[in-house]
Amino acid sequence: AIVPMQDVLRRGAESRMNRPGQAGGNWSWRFTWEQVYFGLQDELLELTRTYGRA
């Protein structure tokens, strides 16, 4: 499965990748490993299995 990291990390509007109508600053957001929380791997595994994406 492919999922946006902003959604996985529960980030807000400050982490948007694309702002239609805005010429600059798009596609520049990057996550850091410090933002990845304990248990994320298990959470993603459960979601992909639940929705048949494993």
Class derived from helix and strand content:
mainly alpha
User: What's the gyration radius in Å?
Assistant: 14 Å
How much of the residues is beta strand, in percent? under 5%
Number of strands: 0
Give the overall pLDDT as a whole number.
90
- So how many helices? 2
List the secondary-structure elements in sequence, H or E: HH
Distance, first to last CA: 7 Å
Q: Considering DSSP H and I runs of 4 or more, what fraction of the residues is helical?
A: 25-40%
Total domains:
1
Shape: elongated
The largest sheet, given as strand count, sense and whether it forms a barrel, is: none
Low-confidence stretches: none
Features:
single chain, 54 residues, mainly alpha, 2 helices, 0% strand
Topology:
Blueprint: H1 5-8, H2 40-50
Summarize the structure.
This protein has one domain. It is an all-alpha fold and 54 residues long. It is elongated and about 40 Å long.
Report on this model:
The chain has 2 helices and no strands. It has helices at 5-8, 40-50. The termini are close together. The relative contact order is 0.20.
